Amino acid sequence: MPITRVGLVAKRGLDAAAGALAELAGWLEARQVHAVFETDTAALAGLPAGRRTVSRDELPRTCDLIVVLGGDGTLIGMADRIAEAGAEVAILGVNFGSLGFLTEITLPELYPSLESVLGGTAQIEERMMLRSRTLRDGVVHADRLALNDVVITKGALSRIIDLEVEIGGRPIMRVRADGLIIGSPTGSTAYNLAAGGPILHPEVDALLLTPIAPHMLTNRPVVVPASSEIRVRPAVNGSNEEMFVTIDGQSGHALQSADEICITRAERPLKLIRASTRTYFDVLRQKLKWSER
To answer: What is the layout of strands, in order, in the sheet containing 170-177?
Structure first.
């Protein structure tokens, strides 16, 4: 499908991106590609008043491609919006600062990467998304999509939380910990990594369950098939501590004692444009300093 409209979104307050945004819009327009600015990004770029802009929620429905300038957090926020919109829109992340796990394309690589997209030769990866539904009294209370992870944690003043985990309707484990991470392969290098979970290559068709600071030595990270339906609920006769569920670190809500969280692989993956100059393991070596002694 030809690219005719490219959405531009930058991290809020990223003044360093202002000049790059104006230059990028001109580069696109010179190739008969319309640049669609997200509202806050238009103000950052100093666009003249009167030019039509769209909100971040509307952007996936109005573009063939979205270019994100910022860090991984900004890209994850847009990825979740693309998924919620049900849009078949690829995303290209340009990093400002250190190389990101997701926003791995550097500013000097931006235009060659865009040329490859417009020419139909870009390297596009499909990244698994997660669907999280919170069931309350048998009714769906919240239904969200995530690129990285769904995290169940204790409240600020809580001690430990007690969770029961089922897969495919069968009990798997009881977790007594500060929380539990259910992550995708993409999310394996996010909170999961900090909590001591394993790194999964993005092409591995699996889900992760990683306890956060477990209070039982036998509670260890578990890798399960991506086809699994994971159900998590507060344990019967367990602690009555305050709990929250957080989606990709972007949004969330409080849980009640009888709630149940159901996590599955989402119907659609995210389309992520990768740099042609480095592999996934090149990014890991740089970010995790594997090449240093």
So the answer is: 139-146, 130-136, 260-265, 230-234, 161-167, 170-177
